[in-house]
Amino acid sequence: MNVPKKVKHFVWKVCKNILATKENLWRRNITKDNTCEVCKKQVESIGHLFWFYDHVKEVWYSCKLSLSFEIHPSRDYMNVIWHLQKWEESRPRLLEWMVKISWGIWKDRNDIRHRGRLWSGQAVTRSLLCSLEEFQLANERLMANAKRNHVVKWALPQAGCYKVNVDRVVFSKKKQSGVGVVVKDGAIQVIATLSKKQYSSLGPLEIEAKAMEIGVTFAMKVGVGDVTFEGDSLEICNAIHGLTIVAPSVQNVVTGILKCA
């Protein structure tokens, strides 16, 4: 799974049922109260914490992940992981996203306990997915640097076709992003270019998706057909081809790109 090591360690604790939930702390005589920190009604067990109270249901609804099986109160977390692994081939990265959201729920629960701060389900999901997108993009760059001795050359489009290259840059201090688009033909002649700066509070992967969307829209305005689009985000390329699951906000942009194409 392409997740931080702390998330993998967290999942190991959940599957072993040794996470510091109120129920587990109560069993060890560390606390006299085993009530859920959020709902204040039920015992804070692993199952209750991740599935069965109003706030956590709001988090799962916000991330819009659909499961092919129902989670019952009697089903433990290890059993859920086992079922997700069975669907890994047909639903790639579903298990990975489930683990990420679970970690976000645990992080949110600790914020409530120690700071008394309760975020909305949508805010929890958005904050989590943005931070993990940054982690994955950083990993992509590390892998690219590790393969820097491998020369990748720009390939010509086929005769009569065009290639549209898209790139983006982020100005984090100014909360701005920039997008560059270049359209070339088979003779490597530049047909049109676009440079655009915009104010944005989007996450890094959302900006990558928006950059591709701008490139597609620009190619339509220029009036070129038989186009190959090229960008430097493997995550977005895989999402466009339906090979990976991305955050709902990114998927909305990808859906718009596919409709334009």
TrEMBL record:
Residue ranges of every copy of the Reverse transcriptase zinc-binding domain listed in the record:
2-60
Pfam family for this entry, one: zf-RVT
Q: Where is the RNase H type-1 domain?
A: 169-258
Q: What domain of life?
A: Eukaryota
What InterPro entries would the database entry show? RNase_H-like_EbsB-rel (IPR052929), RNaseH_domain (IPR002156), RVT-Znf (IPR026960)
- Kindly list the GO molecular function terms attached to this UniProt entry: nucleic acid binding; RNA-DNA hybrid ribonuclease activity
Q: Which PANTHER family match?
A: BNAC02G40300D PROTEIN (PTHR47074), POLYNUCLEOTIDYL TRANSFERASE, RIBONUCLEASE H-LIKE SUPERFAMILY PROTEIN (PTHR47074:SF48)
Name-wise, this protein is: Reverse transcriptase zinc-binding domain-containing protein
Organism from which the protein derives:
Quercus suber
